[in-house]
Write a structure and sequence with these properties.
Blueprint lengths: L30 H11 L22 H7 L3 H12 L5 H27 L2 H30 L5
Helix pairs in contact: 1-4, 2-4
């Protein structure tokens, strides 16, 4: 059971969800598309108007919190935050680093998806086998519920 839920910010800095496709990053998106989305819609520090202005990474509601989720290592995250605060990197640089790290995570899934794309029979077989296993697990509960509700199956 999850003890603590993780909120993944969307491009607008609010919760990312699949119901608003324009606010989300898809698992099958190319890095160039992800970067274009972050560059055009990713909310950053509104107080930072020029590249050489010091920034506040925690004011970047759509960028820095995602770095904390996907960028490998606390030391790297602190370095990015420090560079932002010192104006050593700009928002575009920060977004590029973020997209590179998102790409590292998505790449294995995208490669596997490409491998399975032409194997429709295998995918159907895996889903069928999974369904059979799930039925074995859930049948006692379904039978108990049906019995309590007085539902008779023939």
């Amino acid at each position: 059971m999850l003890e603590e839920m993780v909120k993944v910010p969307g491009l607008d800095g609010e919760k990312m969800g699949k119901s608003d496709a324009e606010n989300a990053i898809g698992i099958d998106m190319d890095k160039d598309v992800i970067l274009a989305r972050y560059l055009s819609r990713g909310v950053t520090d509104k107080g930072r108007t020029r590249r050489n202005d010091p920034g506040n990474p925690w004011a970047c509601r759509a960028v820095y919190p995602v770095h904390e989720l996907v960028t490998d290592g606390e030391v790297v995250n602190r370095k990015i935050a420090r560079q932002c605060a010192e104006a050593a990197i700009g928002c575009r640089d920060c977004k590029q680093l973020l997209v590179d790290n998102i790409g590292k995570i998505l790449e294995p899934f995208q490669e596997r998806r490409k491998e399975l794309a032409d194997q429709d029979g295998l995918v159907r077989e895996i889903l069928h086998e999974g369904g059979l296993k799930a039925r074995k697990i859930i049948m006692p509960t379904i039978e108990e519920i049906a019995d309590k509700m007085g539902i008779v199956t023939y």
